[in-house]
Amino acid sequence: MSSPEYRWLWPSALAADPAGPLGARRSTRDWVVDSLCFLLGIGCTVWITVELLDPGSSTTQAWGPVPRWLVIADASAGVIGALGLWWRRRFLALLAVYLVLLTTFSLASAVTVLIVVFTVGVHRRFAVLAGYVAAILAANAVFPLLRPDSGVGYVEAFAWGASTTVMAALWGMLVRGRRQLIVTWRDRAERAEAEQRLRVAQARVLERTRIAREMHDVLAHRISLLSLHAGALEFRPGAPPEEIAGAAAVVRSSAHQALQDLRAVIGVLRTGQPEDEQAPERPQPTLSALPALADESRSAGIRVRLEIAPAPETVPAATGRAAYRIVQEGLTNARKHAPGAAVRVAVGGAAGDGLTIEVRNPMPLTVPARPIPGTGMGLIGLTERAHLAGGRLDHGRVDDDFVLHAWLPWPP
């Protein structure tokens, strides 16, 4: 807590060097407090010295005639103590020991002693303060013997000195406790803000991961359609104009939709955009969108047989979204690795038993000479999506077919 930003709340006297590194500059508050303490100490010393030098003053009448040499010695020692208040943050230990010795005979340094007791109470722990107060009280016990007050007795003089010393110490403890409490509150507030920023950052990372997964699922589906139709145009340059025009229309439509999806994703991923200016997220497709997905694949030349046993509106939205993405990725993989093959999509299940999805297509007879970019990444993403939804996903070869099988929870 000795960093500069906490210095005004928690003075670094708790460390070995109370004022921080040598040559450290005082803050504005330090200048004001140190100046006030110095003026109080030197002012009290000068006032008491003038009173003791005046034979008719009330102070001289109370304490009796004081030798001039003792008044001058008392004033000189008091001035040194008051000057030491200016560097009390740096040399507090030396100043405190000096004033203990001075308290045994000095009357002019009374206010300076109280300021140092208060400073020890603020800057040091209770054990150090208690020891120092005990030393001051011992010095106060000697003072009435060396310089008795003609107006009061020994006990009353000692009681006055002891009470003012204890009051200064308690005041210092009160200020120290308040500063500790303020630092504790600030530390808790900063930790809470840091934890909140960390939670926000984690939420952003999770949301962007989800968006990236959605982008892969959507764009992979669109681009696979583009690749399929572009390949048909490449290998059938002599096809009838109607077929070429139809394929070109599908390519244009798929490219347009892919660009729209990509623009939406990039818009969400932009940093620095205020939340209230972001466009609302479009509704995500569920089981009710599977027929349109199958029709889109059929328009690309894929033979798709779709079987949906449960009514789409009865399936929970989160489960339906996960099922849609699984089917979409299964159809994309079939177009990539088994073009022209018949694909069977079966969705079944009931509330309480869970929802099952199976995408089956024959294994390809030939292996492409060059590996398809991104192969296997979609299945990894689907496996993670199924696990996050509380389900499971398996894929592999069964007899002569490639089967993608998933199970998702469906609460009763």
Can you offer a commentary on this structure?
The protein is an alpha+beta fold and 412 residues long. The protein has eleven helices and five strands, in the order αααααααααβαββαββ. Strands 1-2-3-5-4 form a five-stranded mixed β-sheet. α4 runs antiparallel to α5. The protein starts with 27 loop residues before the first helix and ends with a strand.
What is the number of strand segments? 5
Strand content: 5-15%
For the biggest sheet, the summary is: 5 strands, mixed
Ends apart, CA distance between termini: 56 Å
Percentage of residues assigned to helices: 55-70%
- Mean pLDDT over the full residue set: 75
Enzyme class: transferase
Organism: Actinoplanes philippinensis
GO cellular component, one term: membrane
Keywords: ATP-binding, Kinase, Membrane, Nucleotide-binding, Phosphoprotein, Transferase, Transmembrane, Transmembrane helix, Two-component regulatory system
